[in-house]
Amino acid sequence: MRATAFRANLYKIIETIADTGVPVDVELKGKTVRIVPIESRRKLDRLVKHPDYLKCDPDDVVHMDWSEEWKP
Fold this sequence. Notes:
Strand content: 5-15%
Distance between the termini: 48 Å
C-alpha cells in the first residue's frame, strides 16, 4: 500500500490491524515499513468461520474409513 492511500484511510487501517492482528506494509519513497500490532494474536484466533462450507453431515467425515487410502 502506498503512503498516500495509508494516509487517506489511516484510522480505518489502524483499526483493522488492531482487530485482525494482520500487519500492513506501507511504501514511501521506495522504502517499505510494516505496521504491526504490539500484542500479536494467535493464528487460530484470526480464522474466519465458514459454517456452510461442509456439504454433508460432520459425523460422516469423522467416521470415514481411510484404511484403503493409507498404505505403508
